[in-house]
């Protein structure tokens, strides 16, 4: 014998979570329990549906009639039970108004969508207004009208929810019906508002223009209804502008409160007018002329994007249409505005930044792979192409996506996949909101809620698992397609991919590139055509890479330079097997490459000269040690007999290492002090290897078996301080010490020849940046001997040395060449640069006098003393001279000051109490800041400069390297001025006394 379906075991198998409670509840339904149990089990939450039905039978006038109707008519039963199992809020509404269950017995409910005019008429009639009147006015008492409006609104919502849950309406159909219901509700609320305002309401024509989802005919079950109000005088108000404005404002204010206020029948939804001109600070309503003036003069890009969905929905529809007609031409020219791409990107960033961290991964609307990604992408494509192609202008997201797909702006498969993902996400959002009629966009985490959601969407077997799996699949699809949507149709056009897929016209592709920030879209099109033409494997991979690369180029300061550089490198390496495969398979390499190419001329030039360096971008970008570099350079140069070829091999290693350091710097992976140290170590290795090559060359020329003298190179200036920048010369001194028994003149001639050969070899034109060796800091300057012996240096410094030469020796670092010569040179100069008693008052005065002369005479003509990075106020020279004066005064007694590095010396001065903590911090931060800016300027421009760029793109690129978001170059300059101003104040106290 079969057990009854109302037994606990049977109910468990049917999907009830609490079968014992369900058995008790079913008993209360009497003989209707058995036939209804199986129907209840098909709902989203059988336990909730059963409990709701029991509640309803307790308050309905004739419970027997209700139960008989459900048993006799499966359609009525499923419509009612589906609502009871999916919406706690609508269950509560039915319990308050049990007579409305009969609304769900309408046999046409499942197949017929109500006309918008019928919904409007019913809502107006409910509050006692005449739908045929040009200005319908409520006649029910105010409080009663407000409550009746809520009840009537929920009656229509109940009918829609039943149709949606039972027949699984297409999400755009449900959203359109919700939008029609909202429009009718706004009309009825305005009718109540007219009654409140009284006779003065006749002074103003008021139009309610829906924005956002309501305007786009894609409203959620619960959402703020975004509106803009526009007004004009009636005949009665033509001569009373103030009265018209007052009446229109009162009507709009009351409409908002009527919909938003909480009463015994709850609330409807918030009416939000914050999208109006000037937002909440602006007047609630304006005339058409006032709106036009604002949008023509003051509106930002996002405001035109919002207007894309503007639609008159209530009040004076003719006036509302006039508003739409006035603003539509502005909407479809918004993409041509200056900064369009930057504005839209900044808007998206703001949205993402405001997502609470705890909700980020479960956000349906704003999170990555969420609804906003689809809507943002579709709207951007509409704004780019809508002016030339009116077919892509529909305000509804799915309709617009369909037109973009049909027009070839989106690939057919991509359009279909995105449509499917968006429809799923919107349906899931609807089901989440329907349960409590609350404005929610976060997928719940608790098992029961997820089970109800999954079952409401048709996932009866393993509803939680299938729901999560499907949701994550669509999230991934949206993330992927969001990237592709901007760019793939462009590639379809320019590469002329064969197949049935529609293609963009060249004109449309050009407009898209312009919208992305390319200043020369025609040139960019030519590059794309060259990269993607043909049916080769390389062209196929390029077509895969370029959609993402274009996005990264567009996010960087100079997209045109990025694409052009990519083309040149691709042409150099396109046939190399590893190149495109690396870019395709290692996303980090491609992203780094795109940022570098679109930001830095210096690094781009290096990549063009060293295209194999692309491989390096996938690894660590920290500078190599001087020992490792020297070993590699010596090995490379040792393979060549000719000096020129040997040094070109050395310089090739240097070129690659320059690219490594520049790339790490551009990507924010290397500290500025490490950049300076890395460039200095690289110069050490280059000079060490080149000194070896030059010595071999001179010995070969002079037929010498061995060198008659030992040589060393002393690093000076910023090189000696381990603080080189990309454009720095290598300031050096050459020193030698003849071998025992060697002829002094032969030794001096040999040393001179080696030094000259070294400088010649490094100056040979080649594919790497020049390394100029500058020996002008030697005794007697350019008139003095290029190379001296240790004794000659000692004699000169003992007899002729000036205080400025002692100051210059503070940065001397004997780093290249013979170790013993280097050691002895250091021992010789230490007493001079670190005098035991410090320098005299006269010497201090002389240092200050020289600094004043430098400030007056060496600043380039036309340079701004406030922003010059080296010689300006608070610049590098100010800070370094201040630290060096402290060293000359106190290094004799404070050993920690005996260093060639500025930051180390500054830290030692702070530890010794020679400068207080705050002043030392200001100087250190300012030195690091100015050094970073100086390096960034060289990276951007490709050549050294001590002035901030005037070009807008170059300045933006400098700001980008420093970590500022797009559009913040002015903030970068202001910060720079603040740093140098603070540093100058410290210099005034410490250096100038």
* Morphology call: elongated
Q: Which topology of the largest domain does CATH recognise?
A: Beta Polymerase, domain 2
What is the CATH-assigned architecture of the largest domain? 2-Layer Sandwich
Which percent band covers the strand fraction? 5-15%
* Average pLDDT figure: 88
**DSSP summary: helix tally:** 42
Question: What is the terminal separation in angstroms?
Answer: 108 Å
How many domains would you count in the coordinates? 6
What is the helical fraction, as a range of percent?
55-70%
Flag low-confidence runs: 486-504
**Structural class based on helices, strands and sheet pairing:** mainly alpha
At the fourth level of CATH, the homologous superfamily of the largest domain is Beta Polymerase, domain 2
Number of extended strands: 10
- Major sheet, described briefly? 5 strands, mixed
- Report Rg: 39 Å
Highest-level CATH class of the largest domain:
Alpha Beta
Cofactor: Mg(2+)
Keywords: ATP-binding, Magnesium, Multifunctional enzyme, Nucleotide-binding, Nucleotidyltransferase, Transferase
Domain PII-uridylyltransferase/Glutamine-synthetase adenylyltransferase: 346-486, 849-990
Domain Glutamate-ammonia ligase adenylyltransferase repeated: 79-323, 591-827
